[in-house]
Protein backbone atom coordinates (compact mmCIF):
# COMPACT_ATOMS: atom_id res chain seq x y z
CA UNK A 1 0.00 0.00 0.00
CA UNK A 2 1.43 3.40 -0.93
CA UNK A 3 2.08 6.13 1.64
CA UNK A 4 -0.98 8.41 1.72
CA UNK A 5 1.03 11.64 1.54
CA UNK A 6 2.86 10.88 -1.71
CA UNK A 7 1.29 12.99 -4.45
CA UNK A 8 3.50 14.40 -7.19
CA UNK A 9 1.85 16.44 -9.93
CA UNK A 10 3.52 16.80 -13.32
CA UNK A 11 2.06 19.50 -15.56
CA UNK A 12 2.79 20.69 -19.12
CA UNK A 13 5.11 17.69 -19.56
CA UNK A 14 6.87 17.29 -22.91
CA UNK A 15 9.73 14.79 -23.27
CA UNK A 16 11.00 13.49 -26.61
CA UNK A 17 12.31 10.00 -25.90
CA UNK A 18 14.70 7.88 -27.90
CA UNK A 19 14.09 4.14 -28.09
CA UNK A 20 17.08 3.57 -25.78
CA UNK A 21 15.79 6.00 -23.13
CA UNK A 22 12.32 4.42 -23.18
CA UNK A 23 13.79 0.91 -22.88
CA UNK A 24 15.93 2.01 -19.90
CA UNK A 25 12.87 3.55 -18.23
CA UNK A 26 10.84 0.36 -18.78
CA UNK A 27 13.71 -1.81 -17.46
CA UNK A 28 13.97 0.37 -14.35
CA UNK A 29 10.23 0.00 -13.66
CA UNK A 30 10.28 -3.76 -14.24
CA UNK A 31 13.29 -4.18 -11.94
CA UNK A 32 11.12 -2.58 -9.20
CA UNK A 33 8.44 -5.27 -9.86
CA UNK A 34 5.85 -3.07 -11.56
CA UNK A 35 3.60 -4.59 -14.21
CA UNK A 36 3.78 -2.73 -17.53
CA UNK A 37 1.65 -3.01 -20.64
CA UNK A 38 0.63 -0.87 -23.63
CA UNK A 39 -2.80 0.41 -24.59
CA UNK A 40 -3.57 2.14 -27.88
CA UNK A 41 -6.27 4.47 -29.13
CA UNK A 42 -6.51 6.34 -32.43
CA UNK A 43 -4.05 9.13 -31.55
CA UNK A 44 -2.22 8.11 -28.37
CA UNK A 45 -0.15 5.20 -27.09
CA UNK A 46 -0.45 4.69 -23.33
CA UNK A 47 2.17 2.99 -21.19
CA UNK A 48 0.21 1.45 -18.31
CA UNK A 49 2.22 1.05 -15.08
CA UNK A 50 0.48 -1.07 -12.48
CA UNK A 51 1.41 -1.23 -8.79
CA UNK A 52 -0.80 -2.90 -6.20
CA UNK A 53 -4.28 -1.35 -6.73
CA UNK A 54 -3.01 1.66 -8.73
CA UNK A 55 -2.53 2.02 -12.46
CA UNK A 56 -0.78 5.07 -13.90
CA UNK A 57 -1.22 5.92 -17.60
CA UNK A 58 1.61 7.70 -19.38
CA UNK A 59 0.42 9.13 -22.73
CA UNK A 60 2.81 9.05 -25.71
CA UNK A 61 2.57 10.42 -29.22
CA UNK A 62 4.79 9.38 -32.13
CA UNK A 63 7.57 11.76 -33.20
CA UNK A 64 10.31 11.63 -35.79
CA UNK A 65 12.82 10.05 -33.37
CA UNK A 66 10.55 7.63 -31.50
CA UNK A 67 7.92 8.66 -28.94
CA UNK A 68 7.06 11.85 -27.03
CA UNK A 69 5.65 11.77 -23.51
CA UNK A 70 3.15 14.62 -23.63
CA UNK A 71 0.58 15.49 -20.93
CA UNK A 72 -1.13 18.59 -19.58
CA UNK A 73 -1.32 16.98 -16.14
CA UNK A 74 -0.22 13.71 -14.52
CA UNK A 75 -0.78 12.85 -10.85
CA UNK A 76 1.69 10.24 -9.61
CA UNK A 77 1.10 8.47 -6.29
CA UNK A 78 4.35 6.53 -6.19
CA UNK A 79 7.77 7.95 -5.26
CA UNK A 80 9.80 5.54 -7.44
CA UNK A 81 7.76 6.33 -10.56
CA UNK A 82 7.80 10.08 -9.79
CA UNK A 83 11.58 9.98 -9.39
CA UNK A 84 12.01 8.08 -12.65
CA UNK A 85 9.84 10.59 -14.54
CA UNK A 86 11.75 13.54 -13.08
CA UNK A 87 15.02 11.86 -14.14
CA UNK A 88 13.61 11.54 -17.67
CA UNK A 89 12.83 15.27 -17.67
CA UNK A 90 16.47 15.99 -16.81
CA UNK A 91 18.29 13.40 -18.93
CA UNK A 92 16.11 13.72 -22.05
CA UNK A 93 16.02 17.53 -21.90
CA UNK A 94 12.28 17.73 -21.35
CA UNK A 95 9.99 20.55 -20.26
CA UNK A 96 7.49 20.51 -17.40
CA UNK A 97 6.54 21.59 -13.91
CA UNK A 98 6.77 19.20 -10.95
CA UNK A 99 4.77 19.91 -7.77
CA UNK A 100 5.65 17.80 -4.73
CA UNK A 101 3.25 17.90 -1.80
CA UNK A 102 4.60 16.86 1.59
CA UNK A 103 3.60 17.01 5.26
CA UNK A 104 5.37 20.40 5.31
CA UNK A 105 5.95 22.77 2.39
CA UNK A 106 5.05 22.25 -1.25
CA UNK A 107 7.97 22.19 -3.69
CA UNK A 108 7.49 23.36 -7.28
CA UNK A 109 10.28 22.75 -9.81
CA UNK A 110 10.11 24.06 -13.35
CA UNK A 111 12.20 22.32 -16.03
CA UNK A 112 13.13 23.86 -19.39
CA UNK A 113 15.15 21.71 -21.82
CA UNK A 114 16.18 19.46 -18.91
CA UNK A 115 17.53 22.31 -16.77
CA UNK A 116 15.95 23.54 -13.57
CA UNK A 117 14.54 26.93 -14.54
CA UNK A 118 13.19 27.64 -11.05
CA UNK A 119 12.54 25.89 -7.76
CA UNK A 120 10.00 27.28 -5.31
CA UNK A 121 9.26 26.24 -1.74
CA UNK A 122 5.82 27.30 -0.52
CA UNK A 123 5.26 27.00 3.21
CA UNK A 124 2.49 29.57 3.60
CA UNK A 125 4.71 32.52 4.52
CA UNK A 126 7.48 33.08 1.98
CA UNK A 127 8.72 31.53 -1.21
CA UNK A 128 12.29 30.52 -1.97
CA UNK A 129 13.29 30.24 -5.61
CA UNK A 130 16.41 28.68 -7.08
CA UNK A 131 17.15 29.84 -10.59
CA UNK A 132 18.94 27.86 -13.31
CA UNK A 133 22.34 29.21 -12.18
CA UNK A 134 21.82 27.66 -8.75
CA UNK A 135 21.64 30.91 -6.79
CA UNK A 136 18.85 31.30 -4.26
CA UNK A 137 16.45 34.22 -4.60
CA UNK A 138 13.99 35.19 -1.88
CA UNK A 139 10.71 35.96 -3.60
CA UNK A 140 8.61 38.33 -1.51
CA UNK A 141 5.79 40.68 -2.40
CA UNK A 142 7.86 43.18 -4.43
CA UNK A 143 9.67 40.54 -6.54
CA UNK A 144 11.66 43.33 -8.22
CA UNK A 145 14.81 41.24 -8.79
CA UNK A 146 13.02 38.78 -11.09
CA UNK A 147 12.11 38.96 -14.78
CA UNK A 148 8.41 39.79 -15.45
CA UNK A 149 7.80 36.42 -17.17
CA UNK A 150 9.26 34.56 -14.17
CA UNK A 151 7.13 36.57 -11.74
CA UNK A 152 4.04 35.93 -13.91
CA UNK A 153 4.69 32.16 -13.96
CA UNK A 154 5.31 32.07 -10.22
CA UNK A 155 2.11 34.02 -9.58
CA UNK A 156 0.11 31.50 -11.60
CA UNK A 157 1.54 28.71 -9.44
CA UNK A 158 0.81 30.66 -6.27
CA UNK A 159 -2.77 31.36 -7.40
CA UNK A 160 -3.24 27.61 -7.99
CA UNK A 161 -1.97 26.93 -4.48
CA UNK A 162 -4.28 29.55 -2.88
CA UNK A 163 -7.24 28.13 -4.81
CA UNK A 164 -6.41 24.70 -3.38
CA UNK A 165 -6.27 26.16 0.15
CA UNK A 166 -9.56 28.02 -0.45
CA UNK A 167 -11.24 24.80 -1.57
CA UNK A 168 -10.03 22.97 1.56
CA UNK A 169 -11.33 25.81 3.78
CA UNK A 170 -14.71 25.73 2.03
CA UNK A 171 -14.89 21.96 2.60
CA UNK A 172 -14.27 22.40 6.35
CA UNK A 173 -16.54 25.49 6.62
CA UNK A 174 -13.69 27.56 8.06
CA UNK A 175 -15.16 31.00 7.24
CA UNK A 176 -12.20 32.93 8.66
CA UNK A 177 -9.74 31.13 6.40
CA UNK A 178 -12.13 31.36 3.43
CA UNK A 179 -12.19 35.15 3.79
CA UNK A 180 -8.38 35.36 4.16
CA UNK A 181 -7.79 33.17 1.10
CA UNK A 182 -10.28 35.18 -0.99
CA UNK A 183 -8.55 38.44 -0.06
CA UNK A 184 -5.12 36.98 -0.87
CA UNK A 185 -6.44 35.64 -4.17
CA UNK A 186 -7.82 39.05 -5.13
CA UNK A 187 -4.46 40.73 -4.37
CA UNK A 188 -2.55 38.10 -6.37
CA UNK A 189 -4.85 38.41 -9.40
CA UNK A 190 -4.58 42.21 -9.35
CA UNK A 191 -0.76 42.00 -9.17
CA UNK A 192 -0.64 39.36 -11.89
CA UNK A 193 -2.69 41.66 -14.18
CA UNK A 194 -0.17 44.44 -13.54
CA UNK A 195 2.76 42.12 -14.35
CA UNK A 196 0.98 40.91 -17.51
CA UNK A 197 1.24 44.46 -18.93
CA UNK A 198 5.05 44.23 -18.71
CA UNK A 199 5.23 41.10 -20.86
Task: Describe what this molecule looks like in 3D.
With 199 residues, the protein is of the alpha+beta class. The protein has a domain at 1-101: Double Stranded RNA Binding Domain (2-Layer Sandwich). Helix content is 36%, strand content 37%. It has four helices and ten strands. It has helices at residues 19-31, 79-91, 148-171, 175-196; strands spanning 7-17, 35-40, 45-51, 54-62, 67-76, 95-101, 106-112, 115-122, 127-131, 136-139. A ten-stranded antiparallel sheet has the order 2-3-4-5-1-6-7-8-9-10, with helices on both faces. The protein is globular and about 50 Å long. The model is unreliable at 1-5 and 125-144 (pLDDT under 50).
The gist of it:
This protein has helices at residues 19-31, 79-91, 148-171, 175-196; strands at residues 7-17, 35-40, 45-51, 54-62, 67-76, 95-101, 106-112, 115-122, 127-131, 136-139. The chain is of the alpha+beta class.
Q: What's the CATH first level of the domain at 1-101?
A: Alpha Beta
Q: State which percent range the strand residues make up.
A: 35-45%
Architecture of the domain at 1-101, CATH level 2?
2-Layer Sandwich
Main sheet strand line-up: 2-3-4-5-1-6-7-8-9-10
How far the N terminus sits from the C terminus, by CA atoms, comes to 46 Å
Major sheet size, sense and barrel closure: 10 strands, antiparallel
What is the overall number of helices?
Answer: 4
Q: What overall geometry do the principal axes of the alpha carbons give?
A: globular
Query: Could you give the order of the helices and strands?
Result: EHEEEEHEEEEEHH
Please name the CATH topology of the domain at 1-101.
Answer: Double Stranded RNA Binding Domain
Low-confidence stretches: 1-5, 125-144
| Protein structure class | alpha+beta
Q: Helix proportion of residues, in percent? A: 25-40%
Mean pLDDT: 79
Oligomer designation: single chain
- Rg over CA atoms, rounded to whole Å, is 19 Å
Number of strands: 10
Amino acid sequence: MRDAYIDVEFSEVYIELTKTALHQFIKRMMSQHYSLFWRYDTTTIFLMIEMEDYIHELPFIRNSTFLTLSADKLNIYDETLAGALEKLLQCEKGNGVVKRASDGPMYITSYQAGDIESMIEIDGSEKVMMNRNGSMVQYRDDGKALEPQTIFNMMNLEIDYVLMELFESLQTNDNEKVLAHKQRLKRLINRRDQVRQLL
